[in-house]
From TrEMBL:
Principal location: membrane
UniProt keyword terms in alphabetical order: Membrane, Signal, Transport
DOMON domain sequence ranges: 43-159
GO cellular component: membrane
Signal peptide region: 1-20
Pfam families in alphabetical order: DUF568
Protein name (record): DOMON domain-containing protein
Subcellular location: Membrane
Highest taxon in the source lineage: Eukaryota
Presence of the UniProt keyword Cell membrane in the record: no
PANTHER family: CYTOCHROME B561 AND DOMON DOMAIN-CONTAINING PROTEIN
Family annotation (PROSITE patterns): DOMON (PS50836), PROKAR_LIPOPROTEIN (PS51257)
Length: 190
């Protein structure tokens, strides 16, 4: 019995290590390259980035598995660890068939469809775009890290529900767990 438990433990450790490294092999359109990446622990998502310490900015590519009729979101929460206070990038199918990327802020759990709008975030966003390919949405953005702090609380989501043409609502389960703290300098998830 002990050898089987040891084998199972080693197998799970290797499996976890492989899953954690899976983002390394991802490629992006336009030959975009990123020095760092993290396979996020929920919702089949990964985050890739280049951090520029000279000006406190970061180029990010957030990638998540989703059907083309769904939506994905990635956010930084400068003041908390969950949705309330999150400054989000939402990618979803636009009315013209291309991917639309909104930036929006979430100030409460009682979000109404009219609250999901394209607006400025509490930190500078220099560029944003999105694409859908091979079953994945990818959000590309260049942004200023809040307070020039490399340690940021991040939140991500995915769903297929819309109201009035904008992403609205998501299921429970892992969707409530899809948050972590990330150090953009060291790459450590906390």
């Amino acid at each position: 019995m002990k050898p089987a438990l040891i084998f199972l433990g080693l197998f799970l450790s290797v499996l976890h290590h492989c899953a954690a490294q899976s983002c390394v092999n991802e490629t992006f359109s336009g030959d975009k390259l990123y020095a760092s990446c993290s396979s996020l622990p929920y919702l089949n998502a990964s985050l890739h980035w280049n951090y520029y310490p000279s000006n406190g900015t970061v180029d990010v590519a957030y990638r998540a598995l989703q059907i083309s009729a769904g939506w994905v979101a990635w956010a930084i929460n400068p003041n908390g660890s969950g949705m309330i206070g999150a400054n989000a990038f939402l990618a979803f199918p636009g009315s013209n068939g291309s991917v639309t990327v909104y930036t929006t802020q979430f100030s409460s759990y009682g979000v109404q469809p009219s609250d999901v709008k394209d607006e400025n975030l509490t930190f500078a966003v220099y560029s944003r775009e999105g694409e859908y390919s091979d079953g994945y949405y990818t959000i590309y953005a260049t942004l200023e890290l809040p307070r020039n702090d490399t340690k940021q609380n991040t939140v991500w989501q995915a769903s297929t529900t819309f109201t009035n043409g904008v992403p609205y609502g998501h299921p429970g389960g892992d969707h409530y767990l899809s948050k972590t703290s990330l150090d953009f300098l060291t790459g450590q998830l906390v």
